[in-house]
Design goal:
Helix content: 40-55%
Strand content: 15-25%
Mean pLDDT: 86
Structural class: alpha/beta
CATH architecture of the largest domain: 3-Layer(aba) Sandwich
Low-confidence stretches: 1-12, 213-230
Oligomer: single chain
Number of strands: 7
Order of helices and strands: HEHEHEHEHEHHHHHEE
Radius of gyration: 25 Å
Distance between the termini: 52 Å
Number of helices: 10
Length: 230
């Protein structure tokens, strides 16, 4: 029977831990710990080496020194600010309160002073990889959602905007100048293409897509129509 430790290792087995440190002995000393945690270590001597490396979309985290040859650890953090799937764990040779505060405010998982306690680092790695896994899952969900939304016709997007704003079919038909039967057809297409299982589900999707609920009322050929602003 699998033990809790083996289950943890299986869950982390697809993850990567990138170590960036100018000191080869530090990089090499961390590799056994990373492997013991069930992750694959990849080491780099500088931020530039790391940035030039091709990285796939896998759960991961970065352990980096504050002081690096070339770009510093904080400068690299700035460049990776948009990568929610790549949490950072800092190390420093001495206590640096301003740098620690800056790194943590920018989203670092932890900031350690060398020599780093192995147990504490292991826990930080697990936390970081869990965050990375969640970020990758959210990114995939949003990509799928955006793809579904892009499959809607302009009219279906109008109907969706009015549906999630709380209008019923008859009201939607009046605003768009189409029959209630046509509204029902468009609404069905919207639900199918968005893979929504219910109206509340569709409303949640609209919120995730950040569709604004404001609509500009325009007049065209003597009839009123709502145009959704997205």
């Amino acid at each position: 029977m699998a033990t809790p430790a083996s289950i943890e290792d299986d869950r982390q087995s697809d993850s990567r831990v990138f170590v960036i440190d100018g000191d080869m002995s530090v990089r090499e000393s961390l590799e056994p710990l990373i492997r013991a945690a069930g992750s694959k270590p990849e080491s780099f001597a500088s931020a530039e080496d790391f940035l030039s490396h091709s990285r796939g979309a896998v759960p991961c985290c970065v352990i980096l020194d504050l002081i690096l040859p070339g770009l510093s650890g904080l400068q690299l953090q700035t460049q990776l600010a948009e990568r929610q799937d790549m949490p950072l764990i800092f190390m420093a040779s001495h206590t640096d309160v301003p740098a620690t505060v800056q790194a943590m405010k920018a989203g670092a998982i932890e900031f350690f002073t060398k020599p780093v306690d192995g147990v504490a680092l292991l826990q930080a790695m697990r936390t970081a990889i869990d965050c990375s896994r969640a970020a990758l899952r959210h990114d995939m969900e949003m990509r799928t959602l955006a793809s579904c939304y892009s499959s809607l016709t302009p009219r279906e997007r109008q109907v969706m905007a009015l549906v999630v704003s709380g209008l019923v079919n008859k009201q939607i038909g009046g605003e768009l100048g189409i029959s209630e039967t046509t509204v029902k057809a468009h609404r069905g297409h919207v639900m199918r293409k968005m893979e929504a299982v219910s109206l509340p589900h569709l409303v949640t999707m609209a919120a995730q897509l950040r569709l604004r609920d404001e609509r500009r009322l325009i007049r065209a050929q003597g009839s009123r129509r709502y145009v959704a602003i997205v």
